[in-house]
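Q: I'm writing up a methods section and want to include an example of the input and output format. Could you take the sequence below and give the corresponding predicted structure tokens, formatted cleanly so I can copy it straight into the document?
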Amino acid sequence: MLIRGTIVTTKQAVASSSLLLRRSFSNTKTASTKVAVLGAAGGIGQPLSLLLKTSAASQYISELACYDIVGTPGVAADLSHVPTFPLVRGHLPSSGTWPPSGNTGLEEALTGADVVVIPAGVPRKPGMTRDDLFNTNASIVRDLVAGCADFCPEAQIAIISNPVNSTVPIASAVLKQKGCYDPKKLSGVTTLDVIRANTFLSSHCNTDPSDTNVTVIGGHAGITILPLFSQTGATTLSDDDREALTVRTQFGGDEVVQAKAGAGSATLSMAYAGYLFTQNLVQAKATGESVVQCAFVESSVTEAPFFASPVKYGPNGIEEVLDFGAISDYEQAWLNQLLPDLKKQIQKGLDFVEG
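A: Here is the clean output for your methods example:
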């Protein structure tokens, strides 16, 4: 079944997780997908790895490879005590050798990987924008994606590291330089924008958020995020309501950063969003059934070379980048406003690699 937004609802995720825990190791289904989480010891990586180990996704995963610059042996040991299907391994960068042998830890984590999820990088702090993260996170994503090109060139890569509007173009440029770029295999995870829009709209309308699916297009930073509330049938929204919900969705990350008062950014909700996205990828790979979810991908839907819209995924990655459909005049005005900023952020990422 094709469902816009996210195919796995909160109710389904909780029910599936409970069922899997009751089954423990009795699951006889042959899982064959290796998932690598790069940045697995961080604020997003740890809860993301836990969700992949314990939730519905675990029935499709044969190995969960956790990689980070510190802490992953402990993370993997901790996760390995959970009685669910995936084998868990923790990897660190290799210690220095002479002659230089390269990063054998990253090589071990990535070799044979079918899906690579990258939440690595520094978190946002109060007063910082996603663009402020660029100088640090750009080089991290560049180097990790280069490892993907070397050790798992056929893998699907899901980028969480911000600023996604720039890090996905960085990844594409690195893969092109390595001669293995396939636009069907590279995505930026924008699912957090979808679940925020679902949550905020259902709270306003007093409806069940698990029954709400808002298509969110554009990018994954500030005004480049555009929730299409006009497509949900929420006809009771006033102009002020629509504006407030749109802006809150666009700047939901700031809300969390400010509430944490310097102690972090949106890690738990991002981990959940990353899990939903990855769950859809591994489910499509295992079952052969297509799923539709919003993602930031190479696109010809607008004049921007990368754009978030509904995307149809199959067992081998992206099957089709879908048009986002009819939008309201209000949403069209936002789209006209966001495109110049989005294109600049995309170009910044490309320039970082291409010079």
